[in-house]
Automatic annotation (TrEMBL):
One of its GO terms (molecular function) is metal ion binding. Keywords: Cell adhesion, Disulfide bond, Extracellular matrix, Glycoprotein, Metal-binding, Repeat, Secreted, Signal. This is Spondin-1. GO terms for biological process: cell adhesion.
Length: 734
């Protein structure tokens, strides 16, 4: 199937373009020959775009005018063509802009269909030494704003993150592979328990189990809820990391990384990995929407990435086959290295500090049953001189889930000295704060400026202060030194941040010293603003009770919901609490019983004798068989006694009975003839043969029909209709 894409050429306001040309070339071709072009364009809006008259494979504008956006369809060439280069040239005023690289050129390559969606990264042996410690941070981007189609407002969430650092001999999951039972339970139920059990069974191949909490709801601003994170270590043998988390509710959709290699070819450790994530299908459930009922995939299919063409009901469906909008991003940062390293070249100053550190920071030994707030910023040092003092930070115990396990202190102390003093450089000088920067050395262009500080207290041993008292930096004033530019002062110091904690804004100002010499307006900005980050806001955090037990399921059978709650224990006047106090999840009980359902009773049959005592029967059919312990079906056949005229006895009895029957038939035939003469336009076909009995035993029914052969068009003969007769059959017990 040919792939069709929508190609958009756009300019960001206030930029624009009047004309353009758009072509698609095979990689390495110049476009001199017709066979150099790849694929075909399709016009969407003829008032905006058209094919070039002298080059019908290229697209250009219909009329030259100001525009900021055009769109066309492009159908990819057959498989095997190779990479394609989409090139655009634009006309703005009388200037033509063309870029061989950059935003006006895009390289598109086909993906080998045989390996599409399959994890096929060659995993090399690792030559790095020592160990490295990383922090994984997960940023969800799945919300009603970014993915509005059928978004599940009430139950949207990310399940708990589960993964590990491991060797190449153990793979948690991979594209083109089959989901294990642990992966299946994460994908369908959001439960990491089985997955963690599988990981721990591979103890020789696993270094660290990676775990992070679930997120309910799926997205909240970072100033309300921090992104979930987890720390893990790698070594030469176990240098890969994998993780997954369920996008819920969903049939079996997840995001994650598989066998991400953190070892470099230079025998070092990767410094940072940033990966945008799209959802993938575990191949265990065939649902197509977020809240599709359970529909196991039999046989199980391979793990594959979701696409925008999977199913029209899919929330990610795009009839044009565009790419799926990203639902999450994961950032993996190296935070420490330990032990002798093979690659001794540090990546940045942080690595130098990490390499010089004699010991890696101690692991946090806080029990999992103790829930704390984040640490507050460090307080000012208790000493204002170069004598040793202390500084303190605090945290709040929010919940103690197990009273038998003691929780560590809520205060932490650290030795310190006053401003300008440091143990590391051996200085005991006490310095003042820096004085404001001097004016720039030039009034137009690039110059320098400086600032100073002074020694407030010299060392007691009479030694010289080695701390610098002056520093210089470059400065730029009035970048454009021309008659049309205006002269301005240097930027003033930044105002204080608008926020005392968290994220705020700060501003700085400058003044116009001289307007442009040519009399034009001064376009220089006199105010500049940027974001500023203060220490994390540490109002008294929410003090919450442990979660209650899950409530009973909302139904007694089938699918329902259950909830659990917790209480806010801290006083409301201490600040707003954004922690959720109630959670809900799906629950499943045994299927509901289905009772037997029957049709109405049929008419009683004729008496089974022509004289004396006999019986009649009537029947009914089973519409729905009982299931899951539902009420059993009652009788479907009933008998009742009947009595016809008394049977006559004697030698002439049979003859007399035959004579009476013959006269009855003649009388009925005569009545039919009269009816036909009176209503000649309503004629019936003879009775059909009886149908087969509906059951082999236990009482069934047979049917036969008499169809209208000719029907009157007059409204007064409405009784002329098809006829139907029923009778009982196979009434013997089964």
């Amino acid at each position: 199937m040919a792939i069709k894409k929508k190609v958009t050429l756009s300019a960001a306001t206030p930029a624009y373009f009047r004309g353009f040309t758009l072509i698609a070339l095979k990689e390495g071709k110049e476009g001199d020959k017709e066979e150099d072009h790849a694929g075909t364009f399709q016009i969407i809006d003829e008032e905006e775009t058209q094919f070039m008259s002298n080059c019908p494979v290229a697209v250009t504008e219909s009329t030259p005018r100001r525009r900021t956006r055009i769109q066309v369809f492009w159908t990819a060439p057959p498989t095997g063509t190779g990479c394609v280069i989409l090139k655009a040239s634009i006309v703005q005023k009388r200037i033509i802009y063309f870029q061989d690289e950059g935003s006006l050129t895009k390289r598109i390559c086909e993906q080998d269909s045989a390996s599409e969606g399959v994890t096929d990264k060659p995993i090399l042996d690792c030559c790095a030494c020592g160990t490295a410690k990383y922090r994984l941070t997960f940023y969800g981007n799945w919300s009603e704003k970014t993915h509005p189609k059928d978004f599940p407002r009430r139950t949207n969430h990310w399940s708990a993150i589960i993964g590990s650092s491991h060797s190449k001999n153990y793979i948690l999951w991979e594209y083109g592979g089959y989901a294990s039972e642990g992966v299946k339970q994460v994908a369908e139920l959001g439960s990491p328990v089985k997955m963690e059990e599988e990981i721990r069974q591979q103890s020789d191949e696993v270094l660290t189990v990676i775990k992070a909490k679930a997120q309910w709801p799926a997205w909240q601003p970072l100033n309300v809820r921090a992104a979930p994170s987890a720390e893990f270590s790698v070594d030469r043998h176990r240098h890969l990391m994998s993780f997954l988390t369920m996008l819920g509710p969903s049939p079996d959709w997840n995001v994650g990384l598989s066998a991400e290699d953190l070892c470099t070819k230079d025998c070092g450790w990767v410094q940072k990995v940033v990966q945008d994530l799209i959802p993938w299908d575990a191949g265990t459930d065939s649902g197509v929407t977020y809240e599709s009922p359970n529909k196991p995939t039999v046989p199980q299919e391979k793990i594959r990435p979701l696409t925008s063409l999977d199913h029209p009901q899919s929330p990610f469906y795009d009839p044009e086959g565009g790419s799926i909008k990203l639902v999450a991003r994961v950032v993996i940062e190296r935070i420490a290295r330990k032990g002798e390293q093979c690659n001794i070249v540090p990546d940045n100053i942080d690595d130098i500090v990490a390499d010089l550190a004699p010991e890696e920071k101690e692991e946090d030994d806080t029990p999992e049953t103790c829930i704390y707030s984040n640490w507050s910023p460090w307080s000012a040092c208790s000493s204002s001189t170069c004598e040793k003092g202390k500084r303190m930070r605090q945290r709040m115990l929010k919940a103690q889930l197990d009273l038998s396990v003691p929780c560590p202190d809520t205060q932490d102390f650290q030795p310190c000295m006053g401003p300008g003093c440091s143990d590391e450089d051996g200085s005991t000088c006490m310095m003042s704060d820096w004085i404001t920067w001097s004016p720039c050395s030039v009034s137009c262009g690039m110059g320098t400026r400086s600032r100073e500080r002074y020694v407030k207290q010299f060392p007691e041993d009479g030694s010289m202060c080695k701390v610098p008292t002056e520093e210089t930096e470059k400065c730029i004033v009035n970048e454009e030194c021309s008659p049309s530019s205006c002269l301005v002062t240097e930027w003033g110091e930044w105002d204080e941040c608008s926020a005392s904690c968290g994220t705020g804004m700060k501003r700085r100002h400058r003044m116009i010293k001289m307007t442009p010499a040519d009399g034009s307006m001064c376009k220089a900005e006199t105010t500049e603003a940027e974001k500023c980050m203060m220490p994390e806001c540490h109002t008294i955090p929410c003090l919450l009770s442990p979660w209650s037990e899950w409530s009973d399921c909302s139904v007694t059978c089938g699918k329902g919901m259950r909830t659990r709650q917790r209480m806010l224990k801290s006083a409301a006047e201490l600040g707003d609490c954004n922690e959720e106090l109630e959670q809900a999840e799906k629950c499943m009980l045994p299927e509901c019983p289905i009772d037997c359902e029957l049709t109405e009773w049929s008419q009683w049959s004729e008496c089974n004798t022509s004289c004396g005592k006999g019986h009649m029967i009537r029947t009914r059919m089973i519409k729905i068989e009982p299931q899951f312990g539902g009420t059993a079906c009652p009788e479907t056949v009933q008998r009742t006694k009947c009595r016809v005229r008394k049977c006559l006895r004697g030698p002439g009895m049979e003859k007399r009975r035959w004579k009476e029957a013959r006269e009855k038939r003649r009388s009925e035939q005569a009545k039919k003839n009269i009816d036909n003469e009176q209503y000649p336009v309503c004629r019936l076909k003879p009775w059909t043969a009886w149908t087969e009995c509906s059951t082999l035993c236990g009482g069934g029914i047979q049917e036969r029909y008499m169809m209208v052969k000719k029907r009157s068009k007059s409204t007064q003969f409405t009784s002329c209709k098809d006829k139907k007769e029923l009778r009982a059959c196979n009434v013997h017990p089964c």
